[in-house]
Specification:
The chain has helices spanning 15-27, 51-57, 62-65, 71-91, 104-114, 136-140, 159-178, 182-186, 204-216, 229-239, 253-259, 272-276, 303-310, 329-343, 372-385, 402-423; strands at residues 4-9, 31-36, 97-102, 122-127, 146-149, 194-199, 220-225, 245-248, 280-282, 289-291, 315-316, 324-326, 350-355, 392-395. With 424 residues, it is α/β, with parallel strands linked by helices. It has two domains: 4-183, Rossmann fold, CATH 3.40.50; 188-423, Uncharacterised protein family UPF0261, NC domain (Rossmann fold, 3-Layer(aba) Sandwich), CATH 3.40.50.
Amino acid sequence: MQKKIVIVSTLDTKGSEVAFLKTLIQERGHQVILLDISTGGEPSIPPDISANEVAKAGRGNIEEMRTMKDTAKVSSIMVEGAIKKVKTLLEKGELDGIFSFGGASNTTTATAIMKSLPFGIAKVMLSSTVAMPTSTAGYFGTKDIAIIQSVVDIVGFNPLVKDLLKRGAGAICGMVEMGGSPISLFEPAQKKDLIALTEFKFSEECCFHIRHLLEEKGVEVIPFHAQGIGDKAMEELIGEGLFQGVMDIVPAGVSEELLGGNRAAGPNRLENAGRLGIPQIITPCGFDMLSCGPLERGDRGDPLWVSKNIKNRKLFIPDAFRVQARTHPQELREIAREVARKLNRAKGPIAILIPLKGWSSLDREGMPLYDPVGDRAFLDELKIHIDPKIPIVELDLHLNTREFAQEAVNQFLNLYGENQRRRG
């Protein structure tokens, strides 16, 4: 079946490379839509969506923009206009995949456009700057963008560039042939309820049991790695209405955001499920630690890092890149207040489960981050600030046990059933 693939490029400078790529994709039987984001001059090959159209959609004038020195403003206009154009194509059913290539400027612009498209639409970026550590996270964001490192600059037709463009064409064609539509992606799953689950290494056993217990009940579980970007992406998908409930076993993106940890998940973490009124199970897993590696940061004389993240703390250091520092009682009280503030605004049913024998595999007797005094500080503060209508269930169990997982699932199913009855 023929698919429609948008190529985003600057046709004033990359026309010959785009023409080569277009031919490769057409030879696979797919339609190509050329979207021109040039701001330097006229295109060398005809686009399907011109730079003039893109600029107008972004509330700009291409002729004026070509003389402007404010490149950031010019770029934002073209991004805004291009996003409108690709979303219009998507709404018409005329976009199955999107592809682009280039250096820093084109990678930044093209991935910004790609990030406006939903999960499931094929997105491929062939980039010579993807390995830049200061830029990579921004290119991906929370979206399912496949990025190929070109190694060489994609200019002209030397053998390496030709090979890269061929592989790029193969990647986008293969992706659209296997999927390329958010509707087709989620149609099979819609026969089951979709439940989001947060997890990380230190909750593995608990989350393993939760997945299996829910699947036995006919529920489709979508796990998210709570490393910051994963749970931030989950929050966005919750906001789009994809899930019917959330097992938020590792809501630590809240505490990492609050304390400046590496796994910060943004200011809106722990809010969308409550706003939409879907049931939630919350545990304190992950609040017992702050992710603050790499260890070499301390060698660079960062006094804030040393004092806030390392000094006088229990530590777990599996390698130089990963450092987990135990949160202090005063920080845990601050986290409790923030969690209560967010959950008190929720419209749907919530249960907070507290495993009294430890919150993670690092927080149990004999392990490096065990601190029952800190755990109790969180619980006591939470009881003061949480809405009395939100139950706090204290369990004389460790989080990483099948018994705790079973209780979490039971609580969730009760909330879910209550929510379904309430909504009729």
